[in-house]
Amino acid sequence: MKKRRPAEAKSKPRARKSRPRARRSIGARYRGSPLPIGEQYPLPESELAARARAIESLLAEKGLVSSDMIDQVINAYEHDIGPMLGAKVVARAWIDPAFKRRLLENATAACAELGIGGMQGEHMICVENTPQVHNVVCCTLCSCYPWPVLGLPPTWYKHPQYRARLVADPRALLRDDFGLAIPDDVEVRVWDSSSEIRYWVLPQRPADTEHLSERQLAALVSRDSMIGVDRTRGAQARPGGSR
Ligand code: FE
């Protein structure tokens, strides 16, 4: 099995000598997701779109991609691939202890049992949240993310502020930007995904869900809970999300 890289960060931030600046939360007003672009994100969407069009034109001009190919990829990730697939895996793990063991041992193989897999998910590791441990995922280098189970990464996941602050002070980021307070007696583990290994989270099953079917359980699992910036909160959970 590939080596895991937990990055437990328990250190408190240093006291500032100068007057503290007003915090720029990337999500305080947007509990969970989506997170705002605009003020918090220096590049306006129009600029990002223009850049994407320029890259697409260049790749097409060089014969590396066709517009049909791009349309197919967009269509797949808009309709067929996304957090609903990860939620399906989570629900199965909640009701089937043997499957859960296999998922935690080898997430890529366990997902393949359900017909889930593909590019950007060749080596996935699923880490389990427990009453003692809360896991959260980022990619400090860029935006590595388990596409087959979560779809395309949300905008905030790629933002330098999220990537840097999560490692420096995960409790503060979860509290301030996502409204998720982790109790002091719960260990926080930050997992740094890379192009070789992509992490995602098996959230805790909400209480009082014994009567629910596998399908109903899957509907409770949000994308953000599988990144680790939210809990699965029973009926309050919001599946999906694409930004
Ligand atoms: Fe990356």
Overall description:
The chain is mainly alpha-helical and 243 residues long. The chain has two domains: 41 residues, no CATH class; 155 residues, Nitrile hydratase alpha /Thiocyanate hydrolase gamma (Nitrile Hydratase, Chain A). The protein has eleven helices and four strands; from the N terminus they run H-H-H-H-H-E-E-H-H-H-H-E-E-H-H. Strands 1-4 form a two-stranded parallel sheet. A two-stranded parallel sheet has the order 2-3. The chain is globular, with a radius of gyration of 19 Å. The C terminus is likely disordered. Bound molecules: fe (iii) ion.
Write the layout of secondary structure elements.
Blueprint: H1 45-61, H2 67-80, H3 83-95, H4 97-105, H5 107-113, E1 124-128, E2 133-138, H6 147-150, H7 155-158, H8 160-168, H9 170-178, E3 187-192, E4 198-202, H10 214-218, H11 223-227
Parallel strand pairs: 1-4, 2-3
Helix pairs in contact: 3-4, 4-5, 8-9
The parts where pLDDT drops under 50 for at least 5 residues are 7-24, 26-41, 235-243
- Gyration radius, rounded: 19 Å
Structural class category: mainly alpha
Number of helices: 11
- Bin the helical content: 25-40%
What compounds sit in this structure?
fe (iii) ion
Task: Determine the CATH superfamily of the largest domain.
Answer: Nitrile hydratase alpha /Thiocyanate hydrolase gamma
CATH topology group of the largest domain: Nitrile Hydratase, Chain A
Largest sheet: 2 strands, parallel
Mean pLDDT: 83
Largest beta sheet: strand ordering: 1-4
Number of domains: 2
How many β strands by DSSP?
Answer: 4
The sequence of SSEs as H and E is HHHHHEEHHHHEEHH
- Using the alpha-carbon principal axes, give the shape: globular
CATH class of the largest domain: Alpha Beta
CATH architecture of the largest domain: Alpha-Beta Complex
How much β-strand is present in the residues?
A: 5-15%
Distance between the termini: 32 Å
